[in-house]
Amino acid sequence: MAEAHRGYAVLKEVDQGTFSRFIEWAYKGYYTAAGVRREVDVRASPVNVSDHGQEETKPLALQSEELAPEALEEPTEVAEELAWPEPAMEVEAPPLWEEPSLFRDEVPKWTFGTEKKSKKTKSKKAETKESLKESFIHRKVTIRRESISIPPSCPNKDSSEDYTDVFLSHARVYVFADKYFIQPLKLLALEELQTSLAIYTLYRRRTGDIVALLRYSYANTGDSVRHVEDLRTLLRHYIGYEMDTLIKDPEFRELMVKDGGALLGDFTDMVAKRIR
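Below the sequence we write its predicted structure tokens.
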């Protein structure tokens, strides 16, 4: 073999981070996921040139004050008079005319008696969503439960925290372990991803984190096998209770069309489960 002559092996399509996590798992029994990136909303402040030829950036609060100098002017007499109006007289409003009960039905005509039915339907859908969420959160784990040395996952606190790298690091370890038949590592990566998603708050601004995870996972894994817990099964379950937020993302809808059918099929399966 070429590896025997070279003295090393080349693992194609394996990035450095994934291989480092594999080595860490081999020595410790667990691996460390990628870190969270925080997006900073930086607004450009106007730049002035000082007397010495150096650029000075002034705070935005100061700039806003300079743009509204009238706010610093002394109040005029007219303004003072307008600022202290005479108290208005309280006038009791006449009672509203009420239709005699003889001409009223118990259910308003414009509802056609469907109000109670819609409430029941809405509560049933909400109950189905909560049921899917609870079953996802409490999915059975084995490796994580048996190892007390695995550091706990951290939930996100606001929409500025980008978890794309966190989710992808678990998915890439899963794909690596699946390719080289490392079953314990494959199961651990699946449990780590499930744990991270279970405590993740999907803000509308952060749907791109999940879209990136779905794009990579469906492009690098095969079809799910019935009664076998794999990466696609996990993500299909997650889509089931977060579809209300995901479907509003144009990138997610585009991905379902371009995926070739697998993601769209899983999505429609979960839609059918939600509306039963």
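The chain has a mean pLDDT of 75.
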